[in-house]
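User: Hi! Is it possible to get a structure for several chains at once, not just one? Here's what I have:
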Amino acid sequence: MFTNRTLWIGLFCLAMGLFAAGCTSSAPTNTLIYGRGEDANTLDPINTDIGEAVNVIVNIYDTLVTYDDRTAELVPGLAESWEHSEDGLTWTFQIRDNVKFHDGTSLTADVVKTSFDRLLQADHPLVYDKARPYQASYNMIKEVRSDGERSVIFILDRPSAIFLKNLTMFPASIVSPTAVQERGEKFAERPCGTGPFQMVAWDRDQKLVLGAFQDHWRGPPGVDHLIFVPVQENQTRIEQLKRGEIQIADNLSGFDVESLASRADITVQSQDVLNTAYLATQTEKPPLDRVDVRQAIWLAIDKQELAKVAYAGQATPAVSIVPEQMWGRAKLADRPFDPDQARQLLAAAANDAGFELPLKLSLSYMNRARPYMPRPETVAGFVKDSLEKVGFQIELVPRAVNQHFPFVMAGKHELALAGWSSDNNDPDNFLYSLLDPDNISDAGNNISRFRNAEFHKLVVEAQGELDEGKRLQLYQRAQEIAFAESPIVPLVHARANVAMSNRVFDYQLHPTGLVRLRLAKLKGQP
Amino acid sequence: MMRQVASRLAIAVSTWAVAVALIFVAMRVLPGNPLLARFGQHPDAKQIEQISREQGWNRPMVLQLGEFFWKLGTRGDLGKSIARSHVSITDELRVRVPATIELTLVACLISIPLGITMGVAAAVWQGKWPDVTSMAAALLGVSIPVFFLGMILRGVFTFLPTSARLPLNEFNFQSITGLMLVDTLLRGRPDLWIASVRHLILPALTLSSVPMAIIARITRSSMLEVLHADYVRTARAKGASFARIVWRHAFPNAAVPVTNIAGLQIGLLLSGAVLTETVFDWPGLGQYMAAAVVRDHDYLAVQGGAVVITAVFIGMNLLLDVVYLWLDPRMRGI
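Assistant: Yes, the chains can be modeled jointly so their relative placement is included. Here is the combined structure:
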């Protein structure tokens, strides 16, 4: 009996100890813990297109040209200055002096050349994974040459207005060739760049730990350690934030942050981040080849209401596919929401083309949240209801993300939900990628299969136009055509929400949506 | 008896091979492929075509399957992940499987003794309050969806951590076996041992709810059968104590079906507690497989996971068969 009682007392003490330990667990200060939905897949900048990988990559590496800390303006990065020849085909960059990689090696022109060769050459010996999703964004580069220690020359095969902007993108990050060589295919897990943070440890799907790089050319960052943790469920992420287990929770929808409004110790930042959610019609399939039918669809959807219903108000109604905050967006007055006019247009079209009402169409959509669409099924339901009120009959067809996009890219849909987040802060990235006939194929992003010769001419001309004023005019005209022809209905531009503990300061969401944590700092314990 | 064990082993191995082959084929027949998932909204037809060729996906499926089993059999090589650029699947599973084992074992340590106690109490005091409360708890246990229970527990126990296996800022801790409860002690860090127990409480409680309920109900019904048997009455007539009647005479005979169910439950839990692992972000096998199937469509990761899961499940069944042969002499004749 005595031994039994001892056992119970022992267990009781143990249990109490466990709870007490909870109150005293102390975190080393100055470690910023950042919670997001997924882990990175690789940290080799040429091999990914996943946002969660990009957000780590931009903290480990630098690029030749970069964005201002607060705005989307282009500023010198690892290149101090640059100039281009009259014809726009030769660009010369002067490389910054005294820049060190995390492995102690120095930045030289040759190193820069190697980074670009890895990105571009079909069989480069230092490439260990051949999947390079962004390679096509750099296909204007014919050759990269180093000239002495400090200058790098890019030879282009056509003048390109987006070349400089694409150099700010993460695939163009400068890597240490010494480290790539030494670490081989493990480089993807043990990356080495010149950025403000360096790799410490990575337990996949548990935590990715970066440490401050004291020798960064812009000075050491604001925190000693930065830990990225993947937490799939938004609600779990919010719970962790409330408990102080993490200090920043990102990628939250408007619905998720509603419950945080009353918390004094948590701040929610919300910002437009250059994306567009849209409804695409398959313009090759009659009667969607008729502009009046497409305009009827446009008129039937109340975007203001959609932003409330499917985004908890955290979205702006869209008129053009180009995001509102982006340079080059045309000033267009939207067609006001008008179901009556939509019904009349559709009825007239039915009469003219001889199809029956209600017009049966399928609407394909993805069954998982995207940054521009946190609740695709709500958007799909809203579109279905709106269209059925004016004479359509809509069948909803959900698919997994990795099946939805191949399906619509191959043009097998009738109506489809899609969206795009800016890669390089340039309208070309939206207009050319999403609406130009060059991008119609089994795997092209022009999923509406919109073919307009004048539009194509304007957009292609703009790609090579280095004069910003002239380029702006070309884009204005192109967007007017897209508006008139309505191959897609731009729905909304979604805002990004980040919730963070009040201990975090000097961190602001970047307008490009990139997570750049160099300046973020932490106050002491709460 | 050895012959029976051997034949059951042969059946188990062939079942395993068939199951793995089915999953192998299913992944390739379903629409989509890992490269489409990998390239996302930036597909590059030329690169995709070239890499598929290098991976050998255009060859007949029988050849691919044969190669897979050959590599697995000769080198224990499960291949390298396509979604995550060259990570060895074996290495990933080496981390994932212990995480799931730890969670499952702790959940079993909670659910089996508790379930049996509840079931026995319910049977012994049939119709009285222990019966009513145990069965009500069991009913709740089977009927509350696991993710919902997880969310409730998370909301109630706000002082316990909701995710990960150790405090996030302990990034220097090097794991040895992958079982944190063991590693923290091996490394001489009792403070982390306590932390890892705290991290285990909520997910393990959540995970234990269903098996506990099922075990309680099975125990109750099989105890009820036995309690009315002649030998129990005889024992009572001989003046055996209450505890001796219940635990020495009745329970061992009621234990056979309970062992069976408990074993199957362990198999089920080990093969992936997807929901619990998702709610509490437990980096185990269930979460890994879910991501590999739904998000990445990663052929090799799914195959690797399937090899382990089917092996665990079939192995568990095999073990049960053998335990049966040992427990119940009547089975040996069959």
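The mean pLDDT of chain B is 86. The longest helix of chain B spans residues 190-227.

User: Great, thank you!
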